[in-house]
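Listing S7. Sequence submitted for prediction.
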Amino acid sequence: MKKLFIFDMGGVLCCDFNDFHVISDYLGITEENFFICAGENFKKLLDGKINSNEFWVRFSLRYGKKVKEELFGKFFNPGINQETKDIIKQLKNNSRVVCGTNTIDSHYYYLLNQGDYDIFDAVYASNLIGISKPDPDFYWHILRSEGVKPEEAVFIDDTEENVLSAQEIGINSILFTNFDSLKTRLKNLMIIHKIKKNKCRGSIHRTRRKPGRINPTPTT
């Protein structure tokens, strides 16, 4: 039985989280041009070196117009994959399960306020720990914090580059594509012998904003 499971958030537990295309349409540019305007500042945002407000100030200089709203928060409306959540619940019966996520401040605090991280024993968010995947130090940070060796961990992510980088340091890694493939891979690892599907297969629970909570912005 493996000691530690590390789950990615966006694309694994959290779905409909990618708001880049919506933001690009709103700004009247292509997604490619969005990332040109973002440049190195998006990586700095992921690593918590700048906050969202500073990002949009820097973005505006390249965009040629002032972006007056915090668009990452404005268009972020994710759902939760109930089948993945059920797997996590079952794994927690015998193992420790944590979240290892590349995220930004507005998305992190939104999900935090919704209680979507509550299922995990701990959350390692790139914007808070100052390192993002696929940097090997991201995984080493989690392993050191949890007190486990690479071979004692299983990492699940929907991005191949992240999976490969985790494998390179000795972590058992699974590329997430869908619930059935994850179930099969876990069975192959002799971790889960039986997983019951949710009666409403593929059902998505969409989060709702809770009133009266203010999303703080980490200092840079």
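Caption to Listing S7: primary sequence and predicted structure tokens for the chain studied. The longest strand covers residues 96-101. The chain has two domains: 4-15+78-206, 20-74.
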